[in-house]
């Protein structure tokens, strides 16, 4: 797929969507949940099958030097760091931003136990019976679409090729704008774990944005933070990519670039499938191992804020015939 085309396929973190009115409702506008399809079909339905030229081919393996940045060291500048902050870590971040637009961070200050608890709660939610998950549906009265809640992304046309994934999408900040009626109550750890993880991610995002300001040669480390305003808008998107009997025909998520400032991604350990486009070649992004790393992805808003210095990468998710993939994206958008 041409890069210019890919970049038009955007993942937008909107707080609301225009509803599909019941009077105009047709069956194609309410697709089946992919978890249910995965358990029952031998072939993906035609609505999920990509045109031949867009089907996932084998991706290149990532280079051994795929960027991993120690955020603790990066966030502790010294007089000898020449303004970069963290010396070698700042150089690693600069190379990552120049070459990939995404990178892993370790030593980020979020407890491994909290990350494991949240990922475990996420898996438990998606494995509940359908009637339980539908209590948090993103369809009002089973018909009118809203961005928040459990289900699929909005279906805008009868010919739209659907992604092989389900999700639950929640507004987490500002805290007083949370719609807790859509926050799962089971497992009981879900709400508290998501709240704590969101709070911990504030520091991660702040430290990354400060380092990016230094790399950009700005006098004020708070430059990008100040541009965002004082009241952050943050969403959490939990993605479930069930096994697919024909992973060669479908996409978990089609190629896109994030319409965000930065995205913080937590992925279940060993869950492969994320791929990034670089110089016309798709590369597999290594999943986090026992290090409990987070993946940071530059969004299009940051590309604009930096006058194109930091580019938002085009990426996609492919599926597996055997393995489920669960991920959580914490999405920071510009006011």
Automatic annotation (TrEMBL):
TM regions (residue ranges): none
Region Disordered: start-end pairs: 68-90
Keywords, sorted A to Z: Iron, Metal-binding, Oxidoreductase
Organism superkingdom: Eukaryota
Signal sequence residues: none
Residue stretches making up the Fe2OG dioxygenase domain: 232-334
Entry similarity comment: Belongs to the iron/ascorbate-dependent oxidoreductase family.
Protein name: Fe2OG dioxygenase domain-containing protein
Organism field: Oryza rufipogon
Lineage, highest ranks first: Eukaryota, Viridiplantae, Streptophyta, Embryophyta, Tracheophyta
């Amino acid at each position: 797929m041409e890069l210019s085309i890919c970049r038009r396929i955007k993942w937008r973190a909107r707080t609301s969507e225009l509803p599909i009115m019941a009077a105009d409702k047709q069956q194609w506008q309410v697709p089946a949940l992919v978890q249910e399809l995965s358990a029952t079909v031998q072939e993906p339905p035609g609505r999920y099958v990509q045109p031949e030229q867009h089907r996932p081919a084998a991706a290149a393996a990532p280079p051994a030097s795929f960027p991993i940045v120690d955020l603790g060291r990066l966030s502790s500048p010294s007089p000898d760091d020449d303004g970069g902050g963290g010396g070698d870590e700042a150089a690693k971040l600069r190379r990552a931003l120049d070459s990939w637009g995404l990178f892993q961070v370790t030593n980020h200050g979020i407890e491994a136990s909290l990350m494991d608890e949240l990922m475990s709660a996420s898996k438990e939610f998606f494995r509940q019976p359908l009637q339980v998950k539908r209590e948090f549906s993103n369809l009002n009265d089973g018909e009118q679409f809203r961005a928040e809640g459990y289900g699929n992304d909005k279906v805008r046309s009868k010919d739209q090729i659907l992604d092989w994934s389900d999700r639950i999408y929640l507004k987490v900040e500002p805290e007083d704008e949370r719609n807790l009626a859509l926050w799962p109550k089971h497992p009981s750890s879900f709400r508290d774990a998501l709240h704590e993880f969101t709070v911990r991610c504030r520091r991660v995002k702040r430290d990354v944005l400060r380092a990016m300001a230094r790399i950009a040669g700005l006098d004020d480390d708070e430059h990008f933070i100040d541009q965002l305003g004082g009241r952050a808008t943050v969403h959490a998107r939990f993605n479930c990519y069930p096994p697919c009997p024909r992973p060669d025909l479908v996409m978990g998520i089609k190629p896109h670039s994030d319409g965000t400032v930065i995205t913080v991604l937590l992925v279940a350990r060993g869950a492969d499938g994320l791929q990034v486009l670089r110089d016309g070649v798709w590369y597999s992004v290594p999943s986090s191992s026992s290090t409990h790393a987070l993946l940071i992805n530059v969004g299009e808003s940051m590309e604009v804020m930096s006058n194109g210095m930091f580019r938002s990468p085009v990426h996609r998710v492919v599926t597996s015939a055997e393995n489920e993939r669960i991920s959580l994206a914490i999405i920071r958008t510009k006011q």
